[in-house]
Amino acid sequence: MSNLAPEELSARVEEAMVSLTTAMRNATFYGIQHPVARECMERCHDSLTRLLSEMSELSLGVQTEQLSFGNMPLRDLVGSLVPLAEELQSRDVGKLTFLPGLEAKEIEILVDTLITDQKALEFQGGVKHALSRQNVTHILSEPGKPDENEDEHRRQALEIHREAVQTVQKAMSAVESGAEIDSLSVRSVVEDMLRMLLDDGNALVSLAAIKSYDEYLYEHSVNVAIVCMLFGYTLGLTEQQMADLGMAGMLHDIGKVFVPLEIVRKPGPLTEEEWLVMHSHPVIGARVLGTSKGIPEVCAVTAFEHHIRNDRSGYPKLTRNRPLHFYTMMMSIVDTYDSLTTARPYRAPVRPEQAVGWMLYSGASQFEPRLLTRFATLLRMYPVGAVVQLDTDEWGVITSGSQRDLSRPTVRLVVDNNGQLVRGNREVDLAARDHTGDFSRSITGILQPCTRIAQIASVLNR
Questions:
Q1: Residues ≥6 apart with Cβ < 8 Å to 27
Q2: Would you place residue 462 in the very low, low, confident or very high pLDDT band (cuts 50, 70, 90)?
Q3: Domain co-membership, 130 together with 249
């Protein structure tokens, strides 16, 4: 503990947190790289660095509308800490700890994380995982004390997820037997999932990561519905639009009931005849949904289109090059993501960042680029052409994915750590490690295209 008097110590901690709050506010208004926001972040870093020179750690507790240091609440003389406490609590941060060695870049990453849309942050696994993924080691985030309703929320989420899986199973069984799909049941469970997502999506989104081999087809449909609705939320869709999108996700693979199970689960490559059977499921699904009572038309459209791909490399083949539906373009991304992260008979699952890395750097032409970029940013992944800041104070433009680790791309350097333009074509692989075994370079931020350095980089990268 510091030798400072408690009153002075509390005042200096408050000063640092006020700077953090102001940095978040300015970064929200002007962007993380704006000089006003950067000045606030520098003040916060300076204040914390001075404090940590006298302490082994600085831990702040987060309570309702209040930050505490030690066993005492901060005084908040300027009234700036209530918004910070609320933001931290809404992101399930119960304790925030700063350690000696704190870097200015880590403060920048913390600010960027805390101003991220709450639902998008949940999709990344929360503050703790977002910081860890970006190699922040001197700021620790711990969850708050379990809410007395948390167990009930998880129970409700599990019940809704289970009901959704059963609803998909019943819908597919009905189609297989020639009966009508119970559209009211599908709509009802989708609306339950949507309410859960909008109220407290953590539990439901975490369930979407659970995969069962035996119930793959049903769980995959439910997971696509959940992630599509979350994706739609981040894009500003209305609740009605999200509900329609959720129904489309639940039913997009309905045509697979007519694909023999031995083809769906075949561990080896499919024969030409087997591929023809597999390629028929979008057409069959669209035909079934298009004639089903109470099913929105968009469900038939997305069932037909979800394998066509943005570059038309998929199936079924179109006789004319008409635009794909907006929901299809979203669903194609989510469908591929969930498939890649699920174990299949013919391959092991890949990690979420590897799945998005492949989609960005190897399969980018298959997806609508702006939507893919938006989806990728939920997992802190960056597209080809993005201008990024590295932890070495260098700047570069992403040119491709690394052959060793798709989650760590190849970057062409455009500005060195002295602020000088880099001449020539100097590319670095962010998957490369130094003699200590650590990564030589890592991304700490991304620039908006309007900045001067982004303009320079775009010219150099032509």
A1: 34, 37, 41, 111, 112, 115
A2: very low
A3: no
